[in-house]
Amino acid sequence: MTISLEPLPYLKDALSPYISEETVTFHHEKHHAAYVNNLNNLIKGTEMEAKSLEEIIMLSAEDASKAAIFNNAAQVWNHTFYFKCMHPNGGDEPASELVSEIEKYFGSFDEFKNQFKTAATTQFGSGWAWLVKDKDGSLKIVKTPNAATPMTSGQKPLLTIDVWEHAYYLDYQNRRVDYIDVFLSKLANWSFVLENLK
C-alpha cells in the first residue's frame, strides 16, 4: 500500500493569525509531503510496502539498519497527528470529562498546561512534547527528540506540539515560548484529545 499525505483537517489559512497560511503551507506541503515521498521511496519493493504506517513504525523502531525508514514513517505519523491537535476554534475550555481526568494526574488543568509548556520549551533542538496515556492508564507528559514517538514505548498519544523550527519560525522566529502559549490557549483541539482518551 502507498502511504499518502493526509489532507489538512481545515483550510491552510484557518489557523491565522496564530499560525500563518505560509507556515501551514510550508509545513504540510513541503516538510510533511517530503516525509511521505521519502518513505514511499524507501519501502518500495520491500516487505514494508504492504504494511500500515503504524506497523512500519513499530517494525523499524529498534532496527538501526532501518533508521531512515523509521525517521520518515514516524514523522509522517507525528505530523498527521499534530495537525489534528489544532483547530481554528481551539483553545477553548475542554469538556469537564477531560478536565477531571487531567486533574487526577496533574492536580489542576493549569498545572498540566505549565508542565506541558515546560516540556515543549526544554526539548533541546528538534522534537515534540506529548500528553500520553501510559501503559498503566495514567496520563503523563513526555518529550521526544527528532522523529521519536511515544507509541514505540507502548504509550497512547493524546496531544502533541511540534517544536521543530519549521513549525513556528516564520511566525515566531526564536520565540518558541510564545508559539507554545498560543498553541495551548488558542489552537489546542481538546475535543480531539478527549476522543483519543476514550
TrEMBL record:
Pfam families reported in the protein's UniProt record: Sod_Fe_C (PF02777), Sod_Fe_N (PF00081)
Catalytic activity: 2 superoxide + 2 H(+) = H2O2 + O2
EC number assigned by the record: 1.15.1.1
Keyword Lyase: no
Alphabetized UniProt keyword annotations: Iron, Metal-binding, Oxidoreductase
Stored PROSITE patterns: SOD_MN
Cofactor: Fe(3+)
GO cellular component: a single term: cytoplasm
Protein name: Superoxide dismutase
